[in-house]
Design brief:
444 residues, alpha/beta, OB fold (Dihydrolipoamide Acetyltransferase, E2P), 14 helices, binds iron/sulfur cluster
Length: 444
């Protein structure tokens, strides 16, 4: 029997993009910058793939293609470096793999390398080196998530099939760095055969344990802890408080690749899917590639595309248009038909309560909202701030109560200046690692 957790939903299988991962070659890339970035190239300069072009937000930024810097834009609302791709794929000559044997690398050396490789874990949006620094005393296990973000995503499945050796290698680097003896691979039961294939690259089977969990949404730090260990992540805390550290499979693979080649994270694996894209695909995309290039790669949009989502269908970010790029945080783009969801009043069916993985009563938020009361006013009792914004209640509601919008409205009102982060786990981890900023600066 697969492991499971309370609540969640089992959406129909929409995996229409099971294609092997293929590489996108853009004409031009846009490297986003923070306002106070130090740019170390200028328009007209030639750059190589993997070459550092800026120091932005305390981190290095790299060109993901070789070519010529076309523009360095630093105006009020836009900050980026545009690089025209010469399509020669010339690698920066200064890059080389790590020569020192893993066993001789210290924790500090590994963190320094991870920082130089600028690896961001898409699982929680944090830099890998910062996650390592945030480790608590007595860390028990590393948990690697191989479960997809939703029923459309399939890129982690493809990575498991195409890069099992790299996944095992990256996990070993993390285990050595964190002095952890066992790594848990969390995967949907439907990927059983592929995980068996991975074990051919494992020399010591005692180092790895696979936890098969039910094909259900949402799979995140909290639901995994509940399904695998029966533990509840305390409100206001995260899994590190319980002695477990999470990594996404793609980041683990990237760590191995970067140690082997010296190439920083300049590519991102992305699923492009949905009802309105001709050829749904899994793609390896240079960071900074415009979304329009991905649409072109996938055979264009059908005419009735009503909305575009970046991230999961249930709680991803609705995009205003296609004027966006692939970043280290991108995991999926969905092109969906407009659906006319009727919006009505709560009929007190209780289905939202039965699917809430956080054991919250979304019904109460619906009723409060209908009555013109603040749905967050009895937070201590109804716990709206513990909501992880998974959207299960919104999805299941037969009356079309816009529960997710109500919840986000409450949160936005409380913190008007703070960006509403889609997953509370991400928010918690970011807070934790951002607190470390001043302490962990490593000079290059
Ligand atoms: S699922 Fe919708 S209709 Fe049913 S109790 Fe919840 S909010 Fe009300
Ligand atoms: S969005 Fe919040 S309230 Fe709704 S099911 Fe998810 S955790 Fe529960």
């Amino acid at each position: 029997m697969p492991l499971t957790f309370f609540g969640g939903i089992k959406p129909e299988n929409n995996k229409i993009s099971k294609s092997p991962i293929r590489t996108v070659i853009p004409d031009i890339i846009y490297i986003p910058l923070e306002e106070d970035a130090q740019v170390i190239v200028e328009a007209g300069d030639s750059v190589d793939k993997g070459q550092a072009v800026a120091f932005s937000g305390n981190e290095l930024k790299f060109s993901s293609v070789s070519g010529v810097v076309r523009e360095v834009r630093r105006d009020q609302d836009r900050h980026y470096i545009a690089v025209k791709n010469d399509k020669k794929d010339t690698l920066y000559p200064g890059l080389k793999g790590v020569e020192k044997p893993l066993k001789k690398l210290s924790f500090e050396e590994i963190c320094k390398l991870l920082r130089e490789f600028a690896i961001v874990d898409g699982f929680d949006g944090a830099y890998a080196y910062k996650k390592l620094y945030a480790r608590p005393e007595g860390l028990k296990r590393i948990i690697i998530n191989l479960c997809e973000a939703d029923s459309y995503a399939s890129v982690l499945h493809r990575l498991l099939i195409e890069k099992p050796k790299e996944l095992v290698g990256g996990a070993k680097i993390l285990m050595h760095a964190l002095s952890v003896k066992k790594c848990i691979l969390v995967v949907e039961q439907s990927k059983k055969r592929d995980i068996e294939n991975l074990y051919q690259y494992v020399n010591d089977p005692s180092m790895f344990v696979t936890a098969f969990i039910e094909n259900k949404y949402p799979v995140n730090e909290k639901t995994i802890m509940s399904a695998v260990y029966g533990l509840e992540v305390p409100y206001g805390g995260d899994s590190l408080d319980l002695g477990y550290i999470f990594f996404g499979a793609e980041a683990v693979i990237q760590i191995y690749d970067s140690f082997l080649t010296g190439i920083p994270q300049i590519q991102k694996a992305v699923t492009v899917s949905g009802e309105c894209i001709s050829a749904p695909s899994n793609l390896s995309v240079p960071i900074g590639t415009p979304l329009k290039d991905l649409i072109y790669e996938c055979g264009d949009l059908s005419g009735d595309c009503g909305y575009i989502v970046s991230g999961s269908l249930f709680n991803g970010e609705l995009l205003a248009g296609i004027d966006t790029i692939v970043t280290q945080y991108t995991g999926q783009f969905l092109f969906m038909r407009e659906t006319k969801k009727k919006e009505g009043n709560c009929v007190r069916c209780g289905r939202c309560i039965s699917v809430c993985p956080m054991h919250l009563p979304p019904l109460e938020y619906a009723v409060s909202s209908e009555k013109g009361r603040d749905p967050g006013e009895r937070d201590a009792y109804y716990g709206i701030s513990a909501c992880i914004e998974c959207g299960c209640c919104d999805y299941i509601c037969p009356a079309g109560v816009p529960l997710l919008a109500i919840i986000r409205g409450v949160k936005r009102k409380r913190k008007p200046t703070e960006e509403i982060v889609r997953h509370s786990k991400r928010k918690l981890l970011r807070k934790r690692v951002n607190d470390l900023d001043d302490d962990v600066f490593i000079p290059f």
